Design the sequence.
């Protein structure tokens, strides 16, 4: 009983190949089903195939830095923009410098052009400024513009309205302002109304009655009159008004206070001098905090110098009252967030929380990570790119690919005969997996298929076919040694497996290096080549090998039919195919 067990081969090679085929079939069905479930049935195309939008940005010197436009800063700016618009680097957006002071950004169709425009157009001058005071975003009416019908409608009603407006104020962290602040503001309104002159008509020639005073904004007592006047005149209700306010704020020196709008126009601020520069932010990312139940938050890491400055400013703000315990994150003169500070934040990192959605948290983290450019930029041109030229090139490329594939099929049929069916079936499985994954990667990570990526997929056909040929030749070598098909399939697999893995590893390594050291369209070629190389390993291990194990049990292949591609006589197998133990080896006559 022990002897047969000793000579028996491990059952892993041909034990249950059907299960492996079912597994890869399930994977194919799941991927194709995911395409239909997501409603995305075609891959997302790059700008050269589908068209898109092209932006031209002109660099501008920052105040006090007349020589900031140079080759080093322009390359740094282009690199930051490329990371922002490309994310994982496979959306095929192109960012390149042109001349001394221009950057060209090409965004493929299917990308949110508005969001991309904001990303490339609002990437300069990130700073952290303390909040001195804040109020509603609309322009504060002057006394001459304010009708006195508030007094006619009732002093108490107007005071109550002021309380309600103050109570309803929200901050970036999603929490309302303390009721004490609204009570104080409401009391100021009420006191002003009580001191207003009565409505009794005055004699002709007397001094007109002074209108009720506008309630001061919280924390405005120590604000210079000039800034208070600017705050009252600032209007953040329209996009154009906010854009104008942002340009003025961005042009202000970092050491000077400034008035600014919230990016959504709901609030306006008086902000103190810059406490922490955007260049002091080392990294920022959005994460989902499931432990404390805060939901989506933004986690920031500072440089060593930035961490010290951030600790100092948060220590000062924590000791102050609302709203002066807030710091504003200012990007291109607009406040994108204004979190409160309750304690000094040491350690070189901080967390911003409060009512974020996944998208808003990722947008803020992206701004914090890549918002600090050494230059400011202005979009001077925006054009739509057509896909006519790329479409013609794609058409020609597909024709060339089809001709090449047809020649490969003819060669396989002529040389491998029945085995060609295995190769073609494996190529079909690889094509389905590649197409489904590329389609799903479009909405998942922004992958866009461009002409170089198509070239990478065509090159992968040769890599995949080469793996089949290696395995087929190992099987045929075993048959030439005088073995039957079933043991030849199992004995040839370990040798073929090593060769396939080494070959695919070299291809994948080349694709990975190319992806890391290049940008733009070349990255698309490298990404596609790496993806198809990995899929080649999957197909050979989980489809080609199990399929050959099953076919080896079929009479057409096992008996070596002349059209099976495994005919021992046609392969020149050494006779006899089997010999009895102890018999002398057959002598072959040498030429």
Sequence:
């Amino acid at each position: 009983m022990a002897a047969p067990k000793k000579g028996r081969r491990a059952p892993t090679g041909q034990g249950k190949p059907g299960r492996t085929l079912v597994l890869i079939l399930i994977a194919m069905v799941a991927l194709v089903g995911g395409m239909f479930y997501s409603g995305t049935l075609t891959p997302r195309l790059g700008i050269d195939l589908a068209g898109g939008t092209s932006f031209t940005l002109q660099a501008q010197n920052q105040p006090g830095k007349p020589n900031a436009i140079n080759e080093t800063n322009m390359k740094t700016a282009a690199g930051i923009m490329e990371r922002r618009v490309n994310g994982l680097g496979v959306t095929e957006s192109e960012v390149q410098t042109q001349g001394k002071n221009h950057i060209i950004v090409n965004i493929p169709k299917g990308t949110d052009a508005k969001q991309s425009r904001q990303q490339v157009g609002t990437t300069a001058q990130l700073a952290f400024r303390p909040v001195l005071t804040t109020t509603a975003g609309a322009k504060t009416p002057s006394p001459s513009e304010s009708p006195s019908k508030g007094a006619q409608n009732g002093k108490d009603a107007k005071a109550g309205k002021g309380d309600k407006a103050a109570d309803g104020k929200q901050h970036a962290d999603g929490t309302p302002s303390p009721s004490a602040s609204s009570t104080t503001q409401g009391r100021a309104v009420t006191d002003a109304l009580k001191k207003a002159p009565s409505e009794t008509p005055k004699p002709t020639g007397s001094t007109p009655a002074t209108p009720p005073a506008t309630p001061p904004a919280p924390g405005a007592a120590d604000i210079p009159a000039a800034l208070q006047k600017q705050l009252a005149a600032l209007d953040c209700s329209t996009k154009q008004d906010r854009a104008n306010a942002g340009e003025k704020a961005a042009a202000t020196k970092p050491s000077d206070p400034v008035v600014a709008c919230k990016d959504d126009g709901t609030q306006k601020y008086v902000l103190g001098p810059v406490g922490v520069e955007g260049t002091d932010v080392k990294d920022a990312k959005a994460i989902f905090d499931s432990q404390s139940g805060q939901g989506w938050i933004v986690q920031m890491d500072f440089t060593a110098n930035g961490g010290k400055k951030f600790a100092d400013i948060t220590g000062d703000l924590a000791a102050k009252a609302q709203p002066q315990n807030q710091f504003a994150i200012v990007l291109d003169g607009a406040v994108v967030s204004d979190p409160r500070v309750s304690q000094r934040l040491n350690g070189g990192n901080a967390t911003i929380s409060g009512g974020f959605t996944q998208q808003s948290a990722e947008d803020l983290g992206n701004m914090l990570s890549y918002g600090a450019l050494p230059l400011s930029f202005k979009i001077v041109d925006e054009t739509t790119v057509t896909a006519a030229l790329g479409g013609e090139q794609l058409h020609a490329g597909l024709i060339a690919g089809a001709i090449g594939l047809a020649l490969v099929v003819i060669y396989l049929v002529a040389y491998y005969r029945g085995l060609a069916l295995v190769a073609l079936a494996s190529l079909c499985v690889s094509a389905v997996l590649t197409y489904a994954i590329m389609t799903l990667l479009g909405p998942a990570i922004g992958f866009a298929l461009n002409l170089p990526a198509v070239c990478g997929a065509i090159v992968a056909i040769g890599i995949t076919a080469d793996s089949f040929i290696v395995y087929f030749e190992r099987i045929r070598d075993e048959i030439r040694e005088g073995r039957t098909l079933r043991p030849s399939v199992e004995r040839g697999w370990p040798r073929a497996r090593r060769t396939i893995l080494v070959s695919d590893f070299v291809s994948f390594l080349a694709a990975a290096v190319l992806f890391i050291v290049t940008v733009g369209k070349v990255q698309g070629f490298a990404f596609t080549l790496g993806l198809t190389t990995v899929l080649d390993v999957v197909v050979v291990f989980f489809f080609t090998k199990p399929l050959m194990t099953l076919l080896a049990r079929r009479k057409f292949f096992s008996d070596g039919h002349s059209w099976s591609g495994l005919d021992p006589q046609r392969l020149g197998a050494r006779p006899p195919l089997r010999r009895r133990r102890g018999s002398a080896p057959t002598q072959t006559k040498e030429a």
